[in-house]
TrEMBL record:
High-level lineage: Eukaryota, Metazoa, Ecdysozoa, Arthropoda, Hexapoda
Gene3D superfamilies, A to Z: PEBP-like (3.90.280.10)
Source organism, top-level taxon: Eukaryota
Family designation: Belongs to the phosphatidylethanolamine-binding protein family.
InterPro entries: PEBP (IPR008914), PEBP-like_sf (IPR036610), PEBP_euk (IPR035810), Phosphatidylethanolamine-bd_CS (IPR001858)
Chain ranges passing through the membrane: none
Annotated organism of origin: Bactrocera dorsalis (Oriental fruit fly)
Official protein name in the record: Phosphatidylethanolamine-binding protein homolog F40A3.3
Stored Pfam families: PBP
């Protein structure tokens, strides 16, 4: 993650563990491997070594949204689940529904990073963001969320890269219109 700039751009320290991420299409995320938006369009299953009595936060961002005007504020939130008991993501509180990768045509490879943090305590509700809305997803800063909820360093993480394919206009029409 250091060589790809994820550290220190998005998080300060390397996660202790590797997050297992498998998509319904059958592909598994391997650190830095290129996947297509078509392969990652549906919400994946995610697992990590968790304590059964602890709560966790999972979030996924694309830090490579092109923005000449604000190059330091260019993350897009793709998925956020808080108050996950153990590693039972389905039992957590979804704040931002999962949206797949949608790098605009001509912008090259984008990094998609997924992290899990052990929460120091329960997080009170954030505003819900449906998968059909861009509100609350653009110009996100992962570090701000980490500080706000005192999450510290991620306990697990993974990342992949993707670039434009024929699925992107479908996703864009669902989320940004």
């Amino acid at each position: 993650m250091e060589s790809s700039g994820i550290i220190p751009e998005i998080i300060d320290n390397k996660p202790k563990g590797l997050l297992q991420v498998t998509y319904p299409s059958g592909v598994k995320v391997e650190l830095g491997k290129e996947l297509t938006p078509t392969q990652v369009k549906d919400q994946p299953t995610v697992s990590w070594e968790a304590e059964d009595d602890a709560l966790y936060t999972l979030f996924m961002v694309d830090p490579d949204v092109p923005s000449r005007a604000e190059p330091t504020s260019r993350e897009i939130l793709h998925w956020l689940v808080i108050n996950i008991p153990g590693n039972k993501v389905a039992e957590g509180q979804t704040v931002a529904e999962y949206i797949g990768s949608g790098p605009p045509e001509g912008t090259g490879l984008h990094r998609y990073v997924i992290f899990v943090f052990k929460q120091p305590n329960k997080i009170e509700s954030e505003k819900f963001i449906p998968k059909t809305s861009s509100e609350g997803r653009v110009k996100v800063k992962s570090k701000d969320f980490i500080v706000k909820y005192n999450l510290g360093d991620p306990i697990a993480g993974n990342s992949y890269q993707a670039q434009y394919d024929d699925y992107v206009p479908i996703l864009t029409a669902q989320v940004f219109n």
